[in-house]
Amino acid sequence: MTERVAELAAEYDRSAAFPAESLRLAHEAGLLTATIGERYGGRGAGVEESARILHSLGRGDPSVALIAAMTLASHARQAVQPHWPEELYARVVKQSFERPVLLNHARVEPDLGSPARGGLPATRARRNADGWAVSGTKRFVTGAEGLDWFLVWATTDEDDPRVGTFLVPGDSPGVEITGRWDQLGLRASGSHDVTFQDAEVPYEQVIGLAPHGPAAEQDNRAGAALHLPLAALYLGVARAAQACFHTFAHTRVPANLGHPVARTERFRRTAGEIEVLLAAAEQLVFDGAAKLDADDTTYTPEQALGARVLADRHGVRAVELAVRLLGNPGLSRGNPLERHFRDIQCAPVHAPQEDISLLAIGTKALNP
Q1: Do 306 and 361 form a contact (C-beta atoms < 8 A)?
Q2: What pLDDT is recorded for position 218?
Q3: What are the tens digits of pLDDT across the range 61-100?
Q4: I need a surface site. Which of 142, 162, 178, 195 has the fewest CB within 10 A?
């Protein structure tokens, strides 16, 4: 499955089309439903298995992996702490076993930026006779074209405003893609801008309505179950880049050398540095994920954030080393390494970004 996804990745990157075929393959392999809880008929995959799934998908096509990550994270959260309306979630699960059903949060806004930096949404939910009418624009909604459900973070228009997540079906009237994703990396992730214009949401399809205030903001320390799998996803990209580097090293035979460059000290030393960077990062990520699954109370949110920071740094550095040693061939459009180099640049962009993570880690270190 991963090999076929990898074969499709170059064309999806070129066209920036929604990777429907690759997601179908992932669904048929049971990956999109892996984290559905056992109480709902799923296998209840934990953080480590999620990380390994995304690591493998990331090697094939990180755009597909990122779309899958959002769905896996939604199911994983429901398995740990049920919060969807039970009847609605049961319907989502039934459909998910039959076909690819994609879920994702819509949180980032043009003015607010990432919620990881604080602040509350300008998107408004207005009460009407049947429930709520949601209006506003969200940015970077991964998989937007193929989402079955948008989990829209919005503020109510009540006298005492509340903030919550409004469950908007993807085919609802009033949902429109208004800004096309046209980025350097993860081009097929379809992380478009989406505008909601009076999108109708029944009263019962709202999660976690809470008073307007700090309690409603994003907790950057509490997201370890997503931070580590995301880090694993990009380490998968770096492993794919490493494979390209190894192939080049074994097949490139300069006329003046008479043997593959893999036998030169320069390539062997760089291969060693790349392997050390990636192996160390994978150990941090997968060991941390296993500790989360085991409810190891000695493993702190700050450790998970730190693992994510180091994994991102190591992944980006490893791919840079490979490209630098190959030179022009590494930056050629015909070389998959060029695509991996672009894709790995997206690793540090995900919230919480490095400065926010280091602030949380440093605050804890100074005030144990």
Answers
A1: yes
A2: 56
A3: 999 999 999 999 999 999 999 999 999 999 999 999 999 9
A4: 178
Whether 358 and 32 have beta carbons less than 8 Å apart is answered as no
Contacts of 22 (CB under 8 A, 6+ apart): 4, 5, 8, 9, 12, 60, 61, 64
Asked whether 352 and 324 are in contact (CB, 8 A), the reply is: no
- How far apart, in whole angstroms, are the C-alpha atoms of residue 321 and residue 330? 10
pLDDT in tens, 224-244: 788 999 999 999 999 999 999
- Token pair 């995304």 is at which residue? 54
Q: Is 81 exposed, middle or buried (0-12, 13-18, 19+ CB in 10 A)?
A: exposed
- Which residue is it, tokens 């036998």? 263
Judge contact between 35 and 42, C-beta under 8 A. yes
Helix (H, G, I), strand (E, B) or coil at 352: coil
DSSP per-residue codes, 39-97: GGTS----HHHHHHHHHHHHHH-HHHHHHHHHHHHHHHHHHHS--S-HHHHHHHHHHHH
pLDDT digits (tens, 9 = 90+) for 146-181: 999 999 999 999 999 999 999 999 999 999 999 999
C-alpha to C-alpha distance for 187 and 203, rounded to whole angstroms: 36
What separation, in Å, do the N-terminal and C-terminal C-alpha atoms of the chain show? Answer: 46
On whether the CB atoms of residues 245 and 325 are closer than 8 A, the answer is: yes
How many Cβ atoms sit within 10 Å of the Cβ of residue 139? 20
**Running DSSP on this structure, what letter comes out for residue 158?**
S
Contact 191, 247 (CB under 8 A): no
- Per DSSP, the residues of 201-213 read EETTSEEEEEESS
| Secondary structure letter of residue 353 according to DSSP | P
